[in-house]
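INTERNAL TRANSFER SHEET
From: sequence group
To: structure group
Subject: Ammonium transporter

Please process the attached sequence and return the structure record in the designated field. Keep the field labels unchanged so the import script can parse them.
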Amino acid sequence: MTTVLHTLAARALNITYDASGDINWVDPSDGTLFVYNMGDIAWTLASMALVWIMIPGVGFFYSGLLRRKNALSMIYLSMMTVAVVSFQWFFWGFSLAFSETGSRFIGDLKYFALSGVLEHPSIGSTRIPSIVFCIYQLMFAAITPILAIGAVAERGRLWPLIFFVFAWSTLVYDPIACWTWNSNGWSFVLGGLDFAGGSPVHISSGSAALAISVYLGKRTGWGSARLAYKPHNTSYVILGTVFLWFGWFGFNGGSALSANLRAANACIITNLAASVGGLVWMFWDWRLERKWSAVGFCSGAVAGLVAITPASGFVGVPASVLFGFMAGTCCNFATQLKFVFGYDDTLDIFASHAIGGVVGNLLTGLFAQSKVAFYDGVTVIPGGWLDHHYIQLAYQLADSVASMSYSFVMTTIILWIMHFIPTLRLRASPEAELLGIDDAEMGEWAYDYVGLEQEIGVGSLTDGEDGGPGVGGGREGDHTHVHHHEKTVGEGDSA
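Return from structure group:
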């Protein structure tokens, strides 16, 4: 009886299994046979899990860079984002990004509530079914908003962020993902190259973080010459970097959607760019204080990973060294932009992700090679400057400018709409900011002694606002990816 039921289920889905174990699916509309490779399915699903672990990795990375009274909220936000985007992706996010019947800018509701998303071939690869591609792409959609909302650190209310993540994913991430990766998207049709998310993930989140920082304004005490900023828990920063670096093999390598040479090449250049980026950033920091910064190394590694992301399926191994060097250099110096323009980007998200994404996109236009893309035996591109396809740089620039501008403007619009709905205003009260977001918004803390301080009446005043020593030295943690540059905020230390 069980065998009969299994046979009926297989017939209902029009699938059979060949001798190698691969799935054969026949399109009932025209009789076309599609063969789903079990190895590719396994690699894509494993990569999905790798990308998932990056999301709490962002939470720990950000948490370690903040003051301890705000440490828990950022880890919580990483998990909240997974939940909200998972529902949004099921509801209409996947359809808006990857339906084949939409416009050049955004899809339609063909796959609303994942209707018809199961055994049909995916838009990303005909070697895996749509449901596999859907769950893999969900992880990209989930990690992007948490990168952006790190900009609310230490001064943002938590409830409005649930609404913001849903709205931002719908109005910002899905359109950019559509025009970048959907075969109908304007950038894809134009010839833009973005293997794993330079524009949809990093430029969009970094630009959104800048918009959030400008909208929220500066934290209380920002710019005071008596406050020195350092991360409260460097071990969290390192732990977050470990999760990110580890997961990035699925982020870039998995974007091949197949266990092939292109995926292997993406993995090795991902590791190399991160290594070079970490070392370069650390050396730039060393010149200021003659000390070796773990935070600087981790920040540079993340910058290298960001920059190599759009290029990882298009460039050779030697080029990844330059990607790491340029990311470690440009993103390091870009952390000083907040002092030049006077915005309070607590975690330097714009410098690391938006600038890093632009660096990666432009270098892809220079170093993309058709032979590397063809490592999968399928993809054919004209290449970049190395292959004498000089217009490619213009395509990459157009995509970068469009993504940065659209994300910044649309994020600002969302924030100001929320501003005029009192329950959705994002800025926390001065009292909540002084007390700490963990206590004010959650009633929980990352560390027991933070609650003990509140009980005995010293509370956040030992966290640096009054210049007192506090627990652990009493130095504030403005973040910083490049904390050596911020010995004294407001003095404008040159990079």
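Handover comment: The chain is about 60% helix and 0% strand. The mean pLDDT is 88.
Transfer complete.
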